[in-house]
Every structure is written in structure tokens, then in C-alpha cells.
Amino acid sequence: MTSDVLASKTAQMSIEENIIFVDEAAGSDESGLGTKSAPYKTPFAAVAAIAGMPEEKQASFKIHVKKAGDEEYGEITATALKKTKKAHENAVKKAKKQAEQTAKDKSANDAKAAEEQQRIDESKGVVLTEDPSLPKAKTIRISESVENRNTRVRVSGWVSSLRVQGKSMMFVVLRDGTGFLQCVLTDKLCHTYDAATLTQESTIAISGEIKEVPQGKNAPDGHELVADFWEVIGKAPGGDDDAYGSRFNVDSDPSVLYHQRHLVIRGETASSVLKVRARVLRAFRDHFDGVGYTEVTPPAMVQTQVEGGSTLFSLNYYGENAYLTQSSQLYLETCLPALGGVYTTAESFRAENSHTRRHLSEYTHCEAEVPFIDFEELLTRTEAMIKDVVNRVWAEPTTRAMIQKLNPDFKPITEPFVRMRYADAIIWLNEHGIKRQEDGKDFEFGDDIPEAPERKMTDAINKPILLTNFPGPIKAFYMPATKEDPRVTESFDLLMPGVGEIVGGSMRIFNYDHLMAAFKREGLDPAPYYWYLDQCKYGACPHGGFGLGIERFVAWLTNRYTVRDCCLYPRFPGRCLP
């Protein structure tokens, strides 16, 4: 409470014998009046009240204090009064100084605003025209800047950042999706209304020559465009509320970032992850083409399940029940007699109410199926594929630079993957004191190892792990039992440090009777699967395949905390916008 307010309250009250009362236990500086029935809480409030009175009255007032635990009031000691008066004087000086600084800041801000307004008003009369005597500008993308140095060019893009230096120089960093280019605007180019009101994320076109920056100066790709003409194509909003920088920041809640994802992807980090993802997709296709697999595009609307009915998205298909596909695996298997090894890169959907950092309701699924192989060859091919794809991505300089910035510690894999059986993983978890979450007991054979213990093991080993031979009851119906141990299947998961499972695969049952028994065991009606069962009738063969989540692979490659940051517009429970 200020001295003026205290003085006003004191002037309104009737204080007997010129005494101001302070009750340190029951008083209040906010609502107190300094009377015995409404005392202040602190001597500071009493001193402030007296200081607000007319000077001729101040000496006649005394302060009586009742300390906590006392029953009676007593006059404040001389030492305490002196200390309180000193504190009040310092507070008054500080408040005066703050008021003076506030007034000074306001005056400076008003002067700056007036100067800015004058600059804007004057800029309206400045008109730019392109010099006809200059060579015709060559239109280029920013990625083509290096080979077009010392040539007059025209570049269009978005204002990623801008900085005004003095009255006659501006630095604008332009972004066009292929790179970043620092542009320098000087003299009259800085004096236009568009220059005075330019905002981040506006689209502009700039003409000029690209010059190497002087030694010791920094700019993207070591050069900058020295502009001779520019124009605004589309101006983004400014102001405090609608400006690009006001919509979100790096500390915003994830829900805000996902809601503003259409703007977030313009940032260097998010766009780099998407570019790495694009290169990864191309590398997988190049790998499969290199080993002779044929790409196919199976349907996304289906009437069968692959991974269990509880995670199916249902839809009304012209009056019939249908679903969004969980996996294209069964369709890929039908292609083997016609095309040999096949693969697809398509969206899969899981209605799984999971909020972990590695789950999505819609994800990009890279799947492959290969005929006439055994389980060992399937494992070998999977390992070779991962290494080859990483090497292809790493060999491209631009992508490698982005990965090194996103994940500085990443190195391509050179060592063999660790091979570990499920049974050995159970032993490892128990030996290292990792317990079941539900009851705190040791893991037992047959338990489905949850994500957290699996990741602890993978991160501790710190190498890619091909975890094999899972028990049949915890795996899909189409996975065959091993000849050595009918309790376990010819199945595997590929686990990566920092991410966990990124690939799941197995050999497939190709014996008709065994497959029908699997349908019966799972309670599945075989009728809708007639086309799949025909594969066992018309030239069955041993075959196997796998499915890989592109988002998980990219998260591992770029060291992202969640797969939600590794796709364009993530879909997960509670999020279907934008």
C-alpha cells in the first residue's frame, strides 16, 4: 500500500490520543486503519501513514505495537522506530526513482514511436523502379546460389528473419524451401513504405548480385545477395497479436505447436526433419529397386484385419463394414507369385488409444515380402537394408549436414547387429533388476515385454538388437512356430537405441491346414480371407517379410524425442487438426 493511500485512510479515521496501533498478529496493512479496533500489521505501514500527514501533525503521533503473543500494546522502541523510518525513506526514494525512470522510458518510447511514424509517413513517398540499364535478372532458387555468384539474379521467398541496421541498411534472410539466403538492402531500398513495414514470413522477390561475404563475416553458404531492386508479393501480419512470432515459440506447450503445425514446419528444425524424411523415403525405394523388389500400392480400405480387431478404424463402405488398413502385408503376400519380392510405402492406421512418444494413429509403413527365403536370410536382409538406407542418406551432402545439425553424435552403423532371443531378453531383464510394472516381480517366459523395459535394455546395450523368437501367443496369427521349439515363432523386432522397436517381421505360415488352425485359434472367420488362403492352395512357398515405421526410423536418425515431430501433420488420440 502506498503512502498516499495510507495517509488518506489515516485522514478519515478518528485516532484517540494521536496513537497509531500495530498488531503484528491480527493487524492488516491492507484493510487496517491504525485504530485499536483496526490496527496495522507492521510498523512500516504506521510510519508511512504518519509520513503522509501534514508535516505539523507528524511529531504528535506515536506508534504502539502489540507483538505476537503479547496481550497489551507498548510504544515502539526508539531503535525499531529509527530502523523503520530509514526503511520507509529508502522505499520512498526507490519509488521516486522508479517513477522517474518510467517517465523517462515513456518519453523515449514516445519519441521513438514518433520518429518511426515520421519514417513511415515519409516512406510513402518513396517509389522504387528497376534500373533498365542493368542486365536482366536470372530467376533462380536459393539452392542454385553458389553457381550463380557474381551474376544478377532474382530470388523469391519468405522472410525468415530481418534486422535493421541504422537508417540505410537492412539484412533480410530469405527462405524458399531449398535453402536460406542473406540479402542486403541499402539506401533508397530501405526507405520505402514496404521496407518500413516489412514483417517476418512476408513473401518478397529480390534482384541483385550474389557476392561472397568478407573474411570474418558469416552468412548462409558464405555469401549474400546485394540487392538493387525488390518488391513485396504478400505481406504477413504485424502487431503483437497476429504476428508470426506471436503464434508460438520454442517454449510453447506441445498442444500449441501441433495446433500451429502449419506454421511450425516453416522453422529450420521442423523443415530439416521433413527433408531428411523425404530423403529416407527415397533411400528405401532406391534400396528395394537395387535388390530387385517391385513397388506395389495395396488398398487402404479393407475388410480384413492383420494386427487384431481392437485397433481397427471402422467405416461404412456403401452399406458394408470396412476398415482402414492396419498393414498391407497380406496383400503383398498375394503379389509374390506374380512379381517376386515386393514392397510398399503407404499409410497404415491403428485405433490404439496410446499416448506414448512412439505411437501414431496414422503412420507411414514401409513393408516388404520376399519368397523362397528362410528366417536367417530374412534377418540378414533386414540388417543389410537398414545399413544400406543409412549409407545412402549419409552419402548425400545436404542431408548429411542436416542430420549432423539435428543429431551431432550420429554415425552410420558399421558393426553387426546384436542377435538376441526373446528368452535371453527375459533373463537379461531379470539379471539387471528390471521388474514388471504391474506387480514388481521378475519377468517370466510368455510375458509381452512393455516399451519401457525394452528401451532400458536397448539403451543399456547401446547397439541395434534383432530380438527374435517370440512366443506364439503374444504375436500375430500368421507367424509360424520354429522347428526347434514350438512355443516360439520365427519372428523378430529390430530395436534401436533411443527409440526402441522400428521394425517388426517374421516368416509367414504357408501351410493351408496350419493357417486354418491359426484362424480358428484367433477366432477369425476365414471367409473374408479367401483370397489370402488361396496362396496356400496355388503354389505355396516359404516366405517372409517385415514392416518398418518411417517416423520411428526418422526419429532415430534425427534424435527427435517423439515420432509426432517426424511426420507432416501427426494424428494421435485427440488430434486430427490441422
Summarize this structure as a short list of keywords or feature phrases.
578 residues, alpha+beta, eight-stranded mixed sheet, five-stranded mixed β-barrel, 20 strands, flat
- Kindly state the mean pLDDT as a whole number? 93
Strand content: 15-25%
Sheet with the most strands, sense and barrel status:
8 strands, mixed
Number of helices: 17
Helix content: 25-40%
Rounded to an integer, what's the Rg over CA atoms? 36 Å
In short:
The protein contains 17 helices and 20 strands.
Q: What do you see in this structure?
A:
This protein is an alpha+beta fold and 578 residues long. Helices cover 35% and strands 21% of the residues. The chain has helices spanning 3-12, 43-51, 55-58, 78-123, 193-196, 244-247, 254-259, 261-264, 268-290, 329-339, 375-395, 397-406, 422-431, 451-461, 512-522, 530-537, 550-558, and strands at 19-23, 62-66, 74-75, 138-139, 152-164, 169-175, 180-186, 203-212, 223-234, 294-295, 301-302, 313-317, 320-324, 342-349, 362-371, 418-421, 465-468, 491-496, 500-507, 543-549. The chain has an 8-stranded mixed β-sheet with strand order 10-14-15-20-19-18-17-16, with helices on both faces. It has a 5-stranded mixed beta barrel with strand order 5-6-7-9-8. The protein has a 3-stranded mixed β-sheet with strand order 1-2-3, covered by helices on one side. A hairpin with a 7-residue loop joins strand 2 (62-66) and strand 3 (74-75). Helix 1 packs across helix 2 (43-51), helix 9 crosses helix 12 (397-406) and helix 9 crosses helix 17 (550-558). The two termini are 49 Å apart. The relative contact order is 0.07. The model has no long low-confidence stretch (mean pLDDT 93).
